[in-house]
Amino acid sequence: MSVTNAQNITVQTIGVGHSYSGRVALTGIDLSLTSGTTALVGVNGAGKSTLLRTLAGAQQPDMGSVRVAGLDPYHRRDRRAALIRVALMPQTATFPGNMTVHEVVSFVGWMRGLASRTAGRRAADVIERVGLATRSADRMKSLSGGMARRVALAQALVSAPDVLLLDEPSTGLDPEQRRAMVLLIRDLDATVLFSSHIIEDVLDVAERVVVLESGRVIFDDALTALAAAGAAAGRCGSGASDLEAGFLRLVSRSRGRES
Ligand SMILES: Nc1ncnc2c1ncn2[C@@H]1O[C@H](COP(=O)(O)OP(=O)(O)OP(=O)(O)O)[C@@H](O)[C@H]1O
Fold it and tell me: What family, per the record (predicted)?
């Protein structure tokens, strides 16, 4: 079953491949994402971060092409217009420790083309949305790791991009913060692709799941289809366990084909 709407594609990859010093990270990736939330899952080293950076215009692939709202983020003519539409929350982010939370978020808004007053206002809004309003005037060096993750999300949200790419957004958060992050992602009005190792997060948020294994897409369908595959294999009967069983079954089948 296809879960994309060909008329409303906001991000697309065509035959994308990438290697690092001969080690293949991505190969033959054809993906179309439209509005809604998609989870990107895979074991360590499957290629998730590489794919997210590639879609964000942050890492030019060796092969194939990327389109954001029909624009090529790696072509000089389109790059500026494409990059305004897409934002990446990276897996690890570093911040200048002496800048305040409000300054680091509004600065990113300004860098992404907002007038400075608008950037300041939007920064205050998104800082509130990520639950850090009371820390807005604090210096970044005074924040915990989990709070810094939420600042990274606020930076991604500040320019209200059409496409949000979130690299393991809930990693390093305590259960309460994780829950808040999940609810926030669920309410985003954008095309969202987020990577995660936490199967409950996928269950709570995503409509669609893309599974990467050794740089290839081995599954791209509705969440319910992955859970159904897991239930058939393991007869678990609980959502998260069915998803996990579906995921493990896919990965082991894919590895069986390779060996
Ligand atoms: N900058 C880099 N230089 C060399 N190899 C890299 C680099 N970044 C990633 N790789 C390699 O590319 C492959 C895919 O890595 P990537 O970080 O995209 O996977 P991932 O699915 O995000 O992993 P994780 O879940 O551990 O974050 C891995 O084999 C990794 O070792």
Answer: Belongs to the ABC transporter superfamily.
